[in-house]
Specification:
Low-confidence stretches: none
Number of strands: 19
Number of domains: 2
Strand content: 25-35%
Order of helices and strands: EEEHEEHEHEEEEEHHEHEEEEHHHEHEHE
Distance between the termini: 35 Å
Oligomer: single chain
Shape: elongated
Radius of gyration: 25 Å
CATH topology of the largest domain: Spore Coat Polysaccharide Biosynthesis Protein SpsA, Chain A
CATH class of the largest domain: Alpha Beta
Helix content: 25-40%
Length: 385
């Protein structure tokens, strides 16, 4: 059947690799506070040229992928007996709506960059297959029993990387015809007679294999991280009512807050801070007040959208700090509940969210009890651009 075309990615994550230690397959171990697989998936989700992702996992690891089940761009497939079987499962998962091109990537390479993904995808315009590689620059030896037994000429030798890119129909047919035992998908492609272009690889695109690779990957990520900050400010006036909603928590009060939605001034400020860090404007841009469907809407809709947009672009919330400015009601007794609500909506641990309050010493509109203001600051942390 004719498919929707475009470029899809297959991320092979079905291995049981435990050489790196930690009691879990390496793709589910933490790297800078986030599973390795999360970083890898985020790199492809954040690339504008990749429309769909198939994540191929071991049946025992289904619980690890629950967070992606609701994302329409991600399909989960069960892996095979070996890597080739897992790649074939990923290719089969795309067969009902085949892409024009497919990028096949090892989940244990979480430092893959947008530029590298783009180089491989672009090369497929002129060649049926393309893969990144780095020329071998070190001397090569043969060895046995801990001693050098010979040397080998390094001319023309390359270190292969992923993602390896192919025209979808060609690589699926190549896998179907291959007897097995290939080192990678390039070997499968060449066995089928496909010409494979070499594109420039990336020295930082390491494959996590042993325990020491986690520390090395963390050092590289800290060097190339894309860190963004944003701030938000919001104000709502008091009106007649019997309570206010602040940071998702309902507080009994002798007034209410006036607004087009539920007037949650704290959540609005935080949402705008996230949009600001992403250079995505403010709530009004995404949820126009002129649209009647948002009248009286719960503000968690807005915050979920902003946080989800950040995740889709490969960012995680490093921290969020919300300050509520009012004379009344008292915020302190409710601050912990507010933090828990915001952390849950942003899908981060509680320790990354702060909520506090201050007064304006009875100065200005907040001091006169005419309304409540809120300030929010966030830090978003992403991988390489």
């Amino acid at each position: 059947m004719a498919g929707s075309g475009g470029t899809a990615a297959i991320i092979v994550a079905a291995g049981r690799g435990t050489r790196a230690g930690g009691g879990l397959p390496k793709q589910w171990r933490s790297l800078l506070g986030r599973p390795v697989a999360d970083w890898t998936v985020a790199a492809f989700l954040g690339h504008p040229g990749v429309g769909r992702i198939v994540l191929v996992v071991h049946p025992q690891d289904v619980a690890h992928v629950a967070r992606w089940r609701g994302d329409p761009r991600i399909r989960v497939a069960m892996g095979g007996a070996d890597r080739a079987g897992s790649v074939a499962a990923g290719l089969d998962a795309l067969a009902d709506d085949p892409p024009d091109r497919v990028l096949i990537h090892d989940v244990a390479r979480p430092l893959v960059t947008r530029d590298l993904i783009g180089r491989v995808a672009d090369a497929l315009a002129a060649c049926p297959a393309a893969a990144p590689a780095l020329p071998v620059t070190d001397a090569l030896w043969h060895g046995a029993d801990g001693h050098v037994t010979g040397t080998r000429d390094r001319a023309g030798l390359y270190r292969a990387q992923t993602p390896q890119g192919f025209r979808y129909a060609a690589i699926r047919a190549a896998h179907a015809a291959h007897p097995g035992g290939a080192a990678d998908d390039v070997e499968v492609a060449r066995a089928a007679g496909l010409d494979v272009a070499i594109v420039e690889g990336d020295e930082d695109n390491l494959k996590i294999t042993g325990a020491g690779d986690f520390a090395r990957a963390a050092r590289i990520m800290e060097r190339i991280m894309d860190i963004r900050s944003g701030n938000g400010f919001d104000v709502h006036a008091f009106t007649d009512g019997d309570g206010v909603t602040l940071c998702g928590v309902r507080i009994p009060h002798d007034r209410a807050l006036l607004g087009h939605s539920d007037a949650d001034v704290g959540m609005h400020a935080l949402t705008d801070a996230i949009y600001g860090a992403l250079a995505e404007g403010d709530i009004g841009r995404h949820f126009p007040p002129s649209d009647p469907q948002w009248k009286g809407a719960a503000s968690d809709i807005f915050l979920r959208h902003a946080a989800g947009l950040a995740r889709s672009r490969g960012y995680r919330l490093g921290n969020a700090d919300v300050t509520l400015i009012c004379e009344r009601p008292k915020i302190g007794p409710h601050a912990d509940a507010m933090r828990k609500t915001l952390a849950a909506l942003c899908e981060v641990e509680l320790g990354r969210v702060s909520v506090k309050a201050t007064t304006s010493e009875r100065l200005g509109f907040t001091g006169r009890g005419e309304g409540i203001a809120a300030l929010a600051s966030v830090t978003l942390i992403g991988g390489a651009a």
